[in-house]
Amino acid sequence: MVLVPGMTYTQDYWNIPIDPDTNNFRLAMNNAGYATFALDRLGSGLSSIPASVQVTALAEAGTLHDVIQALRAGDVGGQSFSQVILGGHSLGSFDAIYEAATYHDVNGLFLTGFSHNINLINATVLLTTGIQPAADDPQLASQGFGFGYITTLPSGRKMFYGPGADVAPALQQWDEATKTATSLIELATALPSTLPVPIDPSLIPPETLPSSNAIDTNVLLIDGADDNFACSPIVDNCQSDSSMQSTEQPFFSNANSFEAEVIPGAGHDINLSVNAPEEQEEVIGWANRWVGTS
């Protein structure tokens, strides 16, 4: 499994050290027999930090493709993998969609913190009042993020959580302490993949706007029932598994299979939620059905 984190998150999103039996996705997959490769997206964490204008969603998809091919060829750790599942969270899901729709090189694709019916009000609030230049953030100022890189304001990550005690205080502190930056250009070039009208992939060149309808592998979509960004108050897509299935199915019309799940009580950051084990069980069950560990 190649695991792609979301906006302002590093690979640690998949490898949370606090209460790992509940919140460590990587550990759960390894215990289920799946090898994992969690990475930092281009322009964040330990990956290289080019000028922000170079970090587009299509560039991210190209780097994911390179990683997948290297894993298949045995260039990482000396072991080759004939089956690869690509998984994303939030902005990482956008990038994963572009990769799978462009290169058709994965055996399965799972997406979290994503839908085609986003909450535009909350997304606008985050982008207008919840972010700042990464260079102005005391925590990130020395890490080399130039013009066009943004991060969340200090103590501004609560929009990523569900209500009440969804994310424990210790995890909230860890979340703030491990945040990174994201290119605004990547955000701008990723957002068209959420156009609320299914697009026939034959009508649009893949190099300009890969459509989720071009994806031909097995797809699983998981969102928290209280996701402030993936849950739309207009279509009520997070009401149940069936409502998410019915609203998203048209956007994955060429998928070999498509399944959707909603995690009760969870917000945008499902891996940080007290209900994270339910997400892990859903991914493992789906992976076992459609891909397998051997």
What does this structure look like?
With 294 residues, the chain is α/β, with parallel strands linked by helices. It has a single domain, classed as 3-Layer(aba) Sandwich (Rossmann fold), CATH 3.40.50. Helix content is 31%, strand content 13%. The chain contains 9 helices and 9 strands. It has helices spanning 20-23, 25-31, 57-73, 91-103, 120-129, 169-177, 184-190, 241-248, 276-290; strands spanning 2-4, 37-38, 85-89, 108-112, 131-133, 149-152, 182-183, 218-224, 257-263. The strands form 2 sheets. It has a 6-stranded parallel sheet with strand order 2-1-3-4-8-9, with helices on both faces. A 3-stranded antiparallel sheet has the order 5-6-7. Helix 4 links the parallel strand 3 (85-89) and strand 4 (108-112). Helix 3 crosses helix 4. The longest helix is centred in the N-terminal third of the chain and has 17 residues, at 57-73. The radius of gyration is 18 Å and the shape is globular.
Number of DSSP helical runs = 9
* β-strand amount: 5-15%
CATH superfamily: Alpha/Beta hydrolase fold, catalytic domain
What is the name of the CATH class?
Answer: Alpha Beta
Strand ordering within the main sheet: 2-1-3-4-8-9
* Gyration radius over CA: 18 Å
**Which regions contain 5 or more consecutive residues with pLDDT less than 50?**
none
Order of H and E elements: EHHEHEHEHEEHEHEHEH
User: On the 0-100 scale, what is the average pLDDT?
Assistant: 93
Q: Assign a percent range to the helix content.
A: 25-40%
